[in-house]
Amino acid sequence: RKEVEQDPGPFNVPEGATVAFNCTYSNSASQSFFWYRQDCRKEPKLLMSVYSSGNEDGRFTAQLNRASQYISLLIRDSKLSDSATYLCVVNMYSGGGADGLTFGKGTHLIIQP
Amino acid sequence: NAGVTQTPKFQVLKTGQSMTLQCAQDMNHEYMSWYRQDPGMGLRLIHYSVGAGITDQGEVPNGYNVSRSTTEDFPLRLLSAAPSQTSVYFCASSYSWQGVDTQYFGPGTRLTVL
Which residues have C-beta within 8 Å of that of residue A78, sequence separation ≥ 6? Predict the structure, then answer.
């Protein structure tokens, strides 16, 4: 069974700190990778796509390591509003259809004042 | 744009009852899907559609039916509710069936089956 694995946490981090978490995936042929954010009792929303060369969006940096089959998310200068569950999403189908999107169970992040 | 809308927000059913969860999107998206989210598990795909008139099964289709008569609407029918179907259900849509597009989720339906 093709899997996407995340540390469920919770990660308790003081405001202003840097936090990073990883996600591993089992299918070496996977081509599309994403981080979604889900607030408590809300729907998931796209945080960022993850590109082969790595990408940055403000305080957020995503990296892909194909050799070790993991993606990472780094949050710098964390804010109270960053408290949420972060879902790793990998397309497990080499053909790339959206039905191949596989969601990790999520990493719960709590930013403390 | 309203985005993806779902009704109802909450529902309680008795075992054996049937019901339809409604989902609509106003973004002219080609791809629509239904997921369920259970505690300690990732979102799991129930059914999906790559366009009007075309549907297919996902990972956990048993006990559910779908249809897609229009681009906008993608209802999910529970045929005979069971306690194992207690879950949060999310409808999602994306511009195309290709897995590189952003998935836009509705606010979810919290279903309890007694």
Answer: A13, A14, A15, A16, A17, A18, A19, A59, A111
First to last CA, chain A: 40
Task: Give yes or no for a contact between B58 and B33, defined as CB atoms under 8 angstroms apart.
Answer: yes
Report whether A31 contacts A91 (CB < 8 A): yes
Residue A1 pLDDT greater than 60, yes or no:
no
Contact between chains at B105 and A101 (C-beta distance less than 8 A): no
CA distances to A72, B7, B12, B46, B60 from B15, in Å: 42, 20, 10, 20, 19
Contact of A13 with A110, CB cutoff 8 Å: yes
List CB contacts of B110: < 8 A, sequence separation 6 or more.
B9, B10, B11, B88
Q: Which residue has the tokens 């952003």?
A: B102
Q: Which two tokens stand for residue B2?
A: 């309203």
Contact A46 B103 (CB under 8 A): yes
* pLDDT, tens digit, 9 for 90 and up, residues A3-59: 899 999 999 999 999 999 999 999 888 889 999 999 999 999 999 999 888 899 999
Inter-chain contact A101–B101, Cβ cutoff 8 Å?
no
CA pair distance A72, A70, nearest whole angstrom: 7
Instruction: Provide, as residue numbers in chain A, all residues whose Cβ is less than 8 Å from the Cβ of B41.
Output: 105
